[in-house]
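Need tokens for this chain, all 420 residues.
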Amino acid sequence: MFVNECLKVVVLHSYPNLGHTAVSTGCDIRLFNVFHSSPVFQMTDSEKAAVIRPSLSEAQVVELVGRLYGLKVSKVKPLPSYMDQNFHVLVCETQEGGDHGKSYVLKVLNTDDSQDADLVEVQTRVMMFLNQKGFPTATPITTIDGKIMSLETISCGEEYKNYMVRLLTYLPGTHLLGISADPQILYKIGRTLAQINKALTEFKHPNIESLRRDSYDWNLSNIHQLHKYLFAVKNTSDRQIVEQIIQQFMKKILPNINNFHKSIIHGDFSHTNILVQPLHSSADCSNAAGHMQQELEISGILDFGEMACGYYVYDVAICIMYLTLDSEDPLHVGGHILAGFESVIPLTLQERDALYLLVLCRFSQSLVFGTYNILLYPDNEEYLLTTLRTGWKHLRQLWELGKEAVEKVWFETAKSYLTL
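Here are the structure tokens for all 420 residues:
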């Protein structure tokens, strides 16, 4: 019912500190299914759920960038995203249309996240803070009137949907998605994650309380909320594994959670949010299989939309889970990442003891939410299968091996770095 309905941008005057937007007319938006990566839980009707995801046309992007930022767009390329909409935007260096030397990313948040201006501002300020600390994070381009984000209102008949818009610097590199990361880059990833966690202990902002997302479905502490979505998992054995993982979390981890080190965490330090590029051509080396590989460096850290107040060990577990998916040696991934992380922030014995189960919890969340979302958005199945293709296999393997066997591999791998 929502497909091909014509929308128009109208003026917005509501959020303080964001500034007013100008009236724009004649810029159509046609709704269609787009890739998304966070479940839309507040919606029960799939058609209504689709509405919160932005679907800007390329013409609309050109208009927004020109009106809000005073830039002349020469090319627009859609980028994959979960519930938001991202575009790689090339702009002319001169108004006469010179070389296309400037690249940006226009990020349009879904209407749900766009409602929390305080949270979006804190996330954006964190990106700016980390960039100043030397981390390869994107930074916002200010609007003509000096704002780091702008709330645009889209009308559909008598309904109005608000979308928060940011223009970010473009980061070079290749996603780790589909790449089997070698031990060297896995160690760097773990170390970088810890360095970010450590740096964020110095971050201050008047709205920092917005990061206390206690009811957020993707918060590992809310693993019990998966019960509402388990019906989507048709394989009885898989469903039983997830149910047992939830039970073990509630029994073994939740009562001791206050013993973990609290911190602001990235929340999604994954293969889709890490960009890499060759360090230099002379760094070629052979891997265990004898194939030549270039040494990689992290060139970009993306998507701070899952940021929250959490625990160091949560970020480590999330990172291990996602980097396991495409690995040719999945069982050892955790050890390499752990070694890198602990070179900066050593985990306590209690945190190490919880790591195995927390990795299983994140597998469970990603797989159950992904399966559930395919029911809502079958047109987006290909994107959602990013985790589902190999995720269930890895979860079953880790579950069947058991905590003791997996920890032995992880901890011995991590320990081996101490002798290097």
